[in-house]
Amino acid sequence: MSFPDAVFAALRTEPAKIAVEHGSREVTKAELLNLTSRIAAGMRAAGVNGGSGVAMITEVTPEALAAYLAAWALGARVVGIRPGFSDKQLDHILGDGLDLIVTDAKLPALLDTEDEPLILTSRPENVARLVYTSGSTGLPKACAQTYQALGEHYSWNPSAWDAATAAQAAACDRYLLFGSLASVVVQDYLALCLLNGGTAVIPLSVKFPEVLADLRITFTIMNTPRLYAMLDSLRDNPIDLSCLRGMLVAGSPVAPHRLQEAMSRIGPVIYHAYGQSETNALTVATPAEILAGHVETVGKPQGGVDIEIRDGEVWARNPWMMRGYWEDAAETAEVLVDGWIRTRDLGFLRDGYLHLTGRARDIVIVNGYPVYAGPIERVLAQHPDVDQAYVLGPSEVLHAFVIPLPGKELSVDELSSLVRDELGPNSVPSTITFISEVPVAPSGKPDKRALWHD
């Protein structure tokens, strides 16, 4: 089945069922299809067809969701623009061969047209979406995924669901749709919800963990910093979250003690996943595996994913990975080699489970020798009174930033000795700074660069 026809087929089933809930507004499957077909007609009138570039700068609304589906129905190249890009980065993205820029203000005009049948006009080799990287090293790069890739994608193709994906889809009766529709993770888990007949619940305001209980959410996605903040809140203000049947945590590895705390305070519903913009999801640890003690791993490869470790680096491939970086052959050649993606992450496989040990580029030369930040962070985080630890190395000097557990006091000398005993003197940070929280980048990941600049 061609992408995204499986979603349209699901929306045609039980047309009176609620597909999207936005505050007090309820949008049925039939109404969402109608919105999609009308916006598609409006886009077609504006000159959009197969291969056109369509940028989305929207809030999370039923109309914005319909706009994404409409552009894909027309076979367009969809560019989701999330908040957080600088003006220079936006100029770079918006100046790259776009035919239409969709904003919330423009959606009423696109809707002001007659309903037309949805006819997919995409070609398998056309690019369906460009996924922009965070741009932490300069201008963001665009990962290009084709219609064929998304047709085989683990979330968008029910016939390809493995047991873990099917279990998550079954938990998506009420999926919390928040953040940005430009997020690949948001899109892909929204697909699980719609394909399984669930309701996407758009909150009018987002405050974790209260929003989960207030809206009776059964499934949500969560980045690691937000999870940590939620756990801190639950320590002092417990909330009944028995409505939750699944929570996917991704974006950066979760410390083992925090993963165990999440399973205890939130419930045995945590899925711990790993992936990249270039590959989408690669591995997942299920709640049952976490309960069985697999807390130092990001899980096993998902169905359709191959992983190899080459010289300590994680290499991966799957049917839905990027075709390459959009109009950037040199960068593509660096990362995409003989059908495999170099993730630039370090790790190892044990009993089929992937363990991450750091970033290949997260390296500091100390006294002429390479030192990786990841192992130092893990050693520091193993201290019983440490909540989180981050290490970076500007100017070939190691600096650590440590968040103590609430009410705990830490000694720089003790932490230095811990690293020295475990990893040797070259890995001991020159400075250890105690902080209360870590800055978060627009991508939702901890912003280590901001720590140093602050």
From TrEMBL:
PANTHER family: LONG-CHAIN-FATTY-ACID--COA LIGASE (PTHR43767), NONRIBOSOMAL PEPTIDE SYNTHASE PES1 (EUROFUNG)-RELATED (PTHR43767:SF1). Residues 376-445 form the AMP-binding enzyme C-terminal domain. Signal peptide: none annotated. It comes from the Bacteria. Keywords: Ligase. GO terms for molecular function: ligase activity. PROSITE patterns: AMP_BINDING. CDD domains: AFD_class_I. It comes from Kibdelosporangium philippinense. This is Fatty acid--CoA ligase family protein.
